[in-house]
Design goal:
about 375 residues; Rossmann fold; six-stranded parallel beta sheet
């Protein structure tokens, strides 16, 4: 696509989550808005300043197009159907339409249509009837999209089991220029939203594992565990955070809830080890949708020189090569053994810290910008 000022509409319904998926779509919007007319299609207006601050994105060139749902639509619980109807109708108004909603694969009518698929949609369904219906309608709707865009080879593998569309991998960006190692302290860090249900970051499990390490090993007595992440207004998520905090009492475990990007950068810079456990005690073959689809926070930690010790599931092994620039683990025993090995071997820690910094440069912002422009067929 050679011309500028292409009209691009992006439907991203979860911007207020401030997670990796939101950073991904906001960066795409930022890049495409340099020379084109880009707008987010929303039903709830996002806090743009908060998005920019927490996700390190620049959305000044991106417009917000908000649609209102009237009172009766809300009361009668018709919002899902009304949203789908409106979205289907307005896609005709764009040269390019990008859909990031895993729950609403609407038929798209733009000149070029892209569906960003974080997980296999039909795998969310449970009953045989739901699977058949989802497969039937999703197949038909997805045929209106020119490409399905996925985060990783892991996601691509699962999408291919369901759909025949052309699938393109666009790895999420890591802000390697933002994160740098500082004076290191004896800290283990984990970063991710506090929430229950699918795709949980498993903070409560990791807290229990750290406590076991702390209780049974003298070498861990001068170490701290830090957990950073957002928590929304959903009561179940707040209760999960409370359980994590309650479980941590009496131990050097610290929480950084809804922290700023500046504080997160500082925390990464001072930490030596990064833990990631999404998918722990879950069956990847039965529930691939609850694994980590890629792992932006892992990349951020590596940029800051943290040695990644991550679960051997989902997209994590695509970033961390076991024994080369970090370590992967399969169960809590391995997590504890690997962590102890790093804690007690200063040379190993420094070696893998440097290797992690070198490795993650392959996933830097420059490559993401180039790959994004190539994906949407814009010349440099």
């Amino acid at each position: 696509m050679n011309r500028d000022n292409v009209k691009i509409g992006i439907y991203a319904p979860d911007l207020s989550a401030y997670g990796g998926g939101e950073k991904y779509i906001c960066k795409i919007a930022e890049i495409l808005a340099e020379k084109n007319d880009v707008e987010f299609i929303v039903f709830e207006k996002p806090n743009v300043e908060e998005l920019e601050s927490r996700l390190n994105v620049d959305l000044q060139g991106v417009n917000i197009r908000k649609f209102e749902l009237n009172y009766f639509v809300q009361v009668l619980h018709l919002h899902k159907h009304v949203k789908a109807f409106l979205l289907k109708k307005i896609t005709k108004q764009y040269d390019i339409f990008i859909n990031q909603d895993i729950n609403t694969v609407i038929p798209a009518n733009s000149s070029k249509n892209f569906y960003i698929c974080q997980i296999p949609p039909t795998n969310i369904k449970r009953s045989i009837f739901e699977r058949v219906m989802a497969r039937t309608f999703l197949d038909q709707n997805l045929k209106t999209y020119d490409k399905i865009v996925v985060y990783s080879t892991f996601v691509k593998k699962w999408i291919e089991k369901y759909f025949d569309n052309k699938i393109e991998i666009l790895n999420p960006p890591v802000d390697i220029e933002k994160f740098h190692p500082g004076p290191k302290e004896n800290k283990i860090v984990s970063v991710g939203r506090f929430f229950t249900g699918a795709h949980s970051k498993k903070q409560l499990d990791m807290i229990k594992i750290f406590k076991e390490l702390y209780d049974n090993n003298k070498s861990v007595k001068n170490w701290e565990y830090h957990l950073a992440g957002g928590v929304g207004d959903i009561s179940g998520n707040k209760e999960y955070l409370r359980l994590c905090q309650e479980e941590s009492k009496g131990y050097p475990i610290h929480f950084h809830v809804n922290t700023s990007l500046e504080n997160l950068i500082d925390l990464y810079s001072r930490s030596k080890i990064f833990w990631h456990a999404t998918g722990f005690n879950e069956d990847e073959n039965k529930n691939p949708e609850i694994m980590e689809h890629f792992g932006i926070t892992t990349g951020e930690a590596m940029s800051a020189g943290c040695v990644p010790v991550v679960i051997n599931k989902g997209g994590q092994p695509e970033i961390v090569r076991d024994g080369v620039d970090g370590f992967v683990w399969n169960d809590s025993r391995e997590l504890k053994e690997i962590t102890l090995k790093i804690i007690t071997d200063e040379y190993l820690l420094k070696e893998k810290s440097y290797a992690a910094i070198m490795r993650i440069k392959e996933f830097g912002m420059d490559n993401f910008v180039n790959n994004t422009k190539k994906l949407f067929n814009f010349k440099e």
